[in-house]
Write a structure and sequence with these properties.
N-utilizing Substance Protein B Homolog, Chain A; alpha/beta; 20 helices; globular; 4-stranded antiparallel beta sheet; 3 domains; Rossmann fold; 45% helix; 9-stranded mixed beta sheet; Alpha-Beta Plaits
Length: 520
């Protein structure tokens, strides 16, 4: 195999996509980080950047299904195919199956050229033979569906291959949610997510921000949330999604939010650099606004705070008279938090490097800094100091698969158990810092009952005399918007008061949130 030198500056988009995928499948590093690294290193047009982004992410998203297709048309077993050739084949099949704007002959021919350059002439002939067989099928996706039904007798295997999820994860979800709901989760998380921005209302109005983004050629609109069922998709001339139209849409849930077609390059806009808005997903906004409900002048502890979308939202809600202490174990991520605070001109946040899984972590905390020197201070005793505590717990992040498709492949059940134990330690360690009658909110960006419901159940069992669950007045609002009444029975569950935000609620990310109040 001939590996390309990354220092070459040939901006062939398929070659760049190959480099990204080769590094991902070899190193199993974060696909997001690899994408950012290569897209920043090559001078590419906006169209080529989108092509590379979609090809790389899509190939990773569907590679189990793609490998199933390859097994139908290749005379070699997947494990016997040369590494570089396999990546080229996966890219080619993805284009043939999911990129309707790429002509079939182009997907085949460009893949063959890439194989000649990267592998060998014999390898290119193999690539040509396999992809021509695939391209000869009139409807390859329908053909694949029939073959999955034919070869897979087990329902777990069917869901795993059809939607490209590890079989252990499918089995885990089915055990909790059942087959129908698991299928809907997998299907929803395989879609590109909607993108949302939260407006910095202290600097600009919704209307003015929309005008600002329009001047910078960013398609945007007020966030109008709905299920996504029966939607009409509207695109611009480049094929990018602009907006949706749905009879269940309702505007008054998150009035500080707008939807944009893409967040690629959003950080390079004047609107972003001037601190007029932040990128923030819907579940975490709901967690802050409806579950934490920070009030002006309050003291709030934000645990696992970096890079800061939730910290900055909390800061804006408590106002100049309020105080936010943001804790994170990573110095590098705290650097990103600092950048966001500077960009947004936020001065009521004190950041601390500390490990919240350790007892008395605030007293043991390391570096402390603030954008405003006068706010940089240490309290000798933080016991009972905070009105509210927000824990953005470490988790498997399965709710973000639509944005980060590699997430579904990089965790195991052992990881889930380990992460759940870490989260539980954090809740227990935060108890001493919360005032009586204070509120503690537990949030994750995953769909994993072991990390979510079971952590809360365990905490309530141990602290059953100290905490009650709050049932926020949010279910009615969301139910009327989403027309999914059956999915909100969880609010009245065994312990009550928690909310699982499914990815099909808002066409984006999933998550879990629960709000607890400490008894007087």
């Amino acid at each position: 195999m001939i590996l390309l030198n990354k220092k070459e500056r040939e901006a062939n988009p398929r070659k760049v996509a190959f480099l990204i995928l080769a590094e991902y499948f070899k190193e199993k590093k974060s696909l997001k980080n690899i994408l950012n690294y290569y897209l920043e290193d090559y001078e590419l047009s906006s169209q080529d950047r989108r092509f590379i982004f979609n090809l790389a992410k899509g190939t990773v998203r569907y590679y189990l299904r793609i490998d199933f297709v390859l097994s139908l048309f290749s005379n070699k077993k997947i494990k016997k195919i040369d590494f570089a050739v396999l990546i080229i084949l996966r890219m080619g099949v993805f284009q043939l199956m999911y990129m309707s704007k790429v002509p079939g002959y182009s997907a085949v021919n460009e893949s063959v050229k890439l194989a000649v350059e990267i592998a060998s002439i014999p390898s290119s002939k193999f690539v040509n033979a396999v992809l021509r067989k695939v391209s000869s099928i009139q409807n390859i996706n329908l053909f694949t569906e029939k073959k999955i039904e034919e070869f897979c007798s087990d329902v777990i295997d069917k869901i795993s291959i059809k939607y490209s999820y590890p079989d252990w994860l499918v089995k885990y979800w089915v055990s909790w949610y059942g087959i129908e709901k698991t299928t809907l989760i997998c299907k929803s998380l395989n879609k590109n997510p909607r993108n949302y921005l939260r407006i910095n209302k202290s600097k600009i109005t919704t209307e003015d921000l929309l005008k600002e983004l329009e001047r910078e050629s960013f398609q945007s609109k007020p966030a109008i949330l709905g299920t996504g069922e029966g939607e009409k998709q509207v695109t611009d001339v480049t094929g990018r999604r602009i907006c949706y139209n749905n009879e269940f849409f309702q505007k008054n849930i998150l009035e500080d939010t707008i939807e944009v077609a893409s967040v690629q390059n959003i950080t390079r806009t004047n609107a972003y650099t001037k601190g007029l808005m932040s990128i923030q997903n819907i579940p975490s906004q709901i967690a802050i606004k409806y579950f934490l409900e920070p009030c002006p002048g309050e003291k709030v502890l934000d645990v696992c705070a970096a890079p800061g979308s939730k910290t900055t939202y909390i800061s804006e809600l408590v106002g100049d008279e309020g105080e936010v202490i943001s804790v994170d174990i990573s110095k590098k991520r705290l650097g990103l938090l600092r950048e966001n605070l500077v960009r947004l001109d936020i001065k009521n946040v004190v950041a601390m490097e500390a490990d919240a899984t350790e007892k008395d972590f605030l007293e043991k905390g390391g570096t402390v800094w603030s954008i405003s020197p006068e706010n940089k201070r240490m309290v000798s005793n933080y016991a009972g100091y905070f009105d509210r505590i927000f824990i953005d717990a470490p988790c498997s992040a399965f709710g973000t698969i639509s944005k980060n498709p590699d997430v579904k492949y990089n965790k195991t059940m052992d990881d889930i158990i380990r992460l759940a134990e870490m989260s539980y330690k954090m809740i227990v360690n935060c108890d001493k810092y919360l005032k009586n009658d204070g509120r503690l909110v537990f949030y994750t960006c995953t769909l994993s009952p072991v990390e979510n419901q079971q952590v809360i159940d365990k905490f309530l069992k141990e602290f059953n005399e100290k905490y009650d669950v709050i049932k926020p007045d949010v279910s009615g609002i969301l139910t009327s918007t989403l027309d999914l009444k059956e999915d909100f029975t969880c609010l009245e569950g065994k312990e009550g008061g928690y909310l699982e935000i499914m990815p099909y609620y808002f066409g984006g990310e999933g998550g879990f949130v629960c709000s607890l109040i400490k008894k007087l």
